[in-house]
Amino acid sequence: MVNCLGTALLAILLLPWVKVAGRGRGHLAVVTSGLHRGVDISPGKFPQKDIFTFFNKEEHWPKGKPDMYAISKLLVQYCVNEISKLVVDRDGTVQVIVNPTCPGMVKTSLARDYRTNAFMSVAVDTFMTVMAKSTEVGAARLVVPALTTKEENGKYISDSQSHEEYLAVVQKNILGPEGQEMQKRVFEEVLCILEQKVPEVRQIVNEAAV
Asked: Which domain holds residue 30?
C-alpha cells in the first residue's frame, strides 16, 4: 500500500506544479525496482481484479518478503507508466518528462528485518558490502533521470541493463496485452482508492487526459 499508493499520490499531486514550474522542461523521476520485471501476472498467480483488496489480506501475501516487495514495485511501475501518458498533449507535446528509475542495490537499512541474530547480521553486512553500492553512489544514480530528453518520456532508467534488454524481459507483464490490461486496471483501482481521501486526484488526472 505504502509503496504504491503513497508514490502514486505524490506523483499525481506534483504534476500540475511541475508542468507550470518546469515550463515544458520539468522532470518527474519515480524510484522503482528492477524486481518488478519477474512478477508473473498470469491467472492463478496474480489477482485479475480487486488487486488491492486481495493483497490487503495477510493470507494472500507471498511467503517471501522479496516477492511482496516485487509485486508492490510492479504496481508502482504500472502507475508511473500511466502517469507518463498523462503528460503528453494531443499534439504529442511532452509537458513533463516522467521516468521510473532503479538505482540498483544500494547499501541501506532496507534489509534490517533479516538481522534476526548475530550470524545473520554478519551475513547481511557482508552481502551488502560486496554486492551493493554505497548510498552516495546510489543517490547519484537518481539524478540520471533529470538528464533524459522528451523523447525518453516514460522510459525505465535501469542501472543494470540496456533499454532493449529491459523491453525484452517485460513483454508479458507490462508490454503485452495482458500487461497493458492489468496496468490500466491497477491504475484505475489506485485512482478509486486515492480519490476517497484526496478528491482532487481524479480532477488532476481528468484534466491532464484532455
From this structure: 2-103+142-209
